[in-house]
Write a structure and sequence with these properties.
Blueprint lengths: L2 H18 L3 H11 L1 H7 L1 H4 L4 H21 L2
Helix pairs in contact: 1-2, 1-5
C-alpha cells in the first residue's frame, strides 16, 4: 500500500469521527466490521476528490449496502 492511500484512510477515519461524534476506536471498529478500509483503499482515486461530507456519505451508503446485503443473504 502506498503512503497516499494510507494518509487518505487516516483522513477518512478522522473526518468520520468528527462528523459522527465518535471516538477513533469506534470508527476503526465500525470500518473493520463493514470492510470500509478495503473500500476506501480500493476507491481512493475516486473518493479523494470528493468533499469530506461526500466521502462520509459514500462510506455510510457502502456500510448500509453491506449491512442490507448481509441481512438479506444469510
Amino acid at each position: 500500500m502506498t503512503s497516499a492511500p494510507v494518509h487518505f484512510l487516516i483522513f477518512c477515519i478522522e473526518t468520520y469521527k468528527i462528523l459522527h461524534r465518535m471516538s477513533g476506536e469506534e470508527v476503526f471498529s465500525l470500518f473493520d466490521r463493514h470492510g470500509v478500509t478495503d473500500f476506501i483503499i480500493k476507491f481512493h482515486d475516486l473518493l479523494h476528490i470528493e468533499s469530506p461530507q461526500s466521502i462520509v456519505a459514500h462510506i455510510d451508503e457502502f456500510m448500509e449496502h453491506v449491512t442490507h446485503k448481509t441481512h438479506c443473504h444469510p
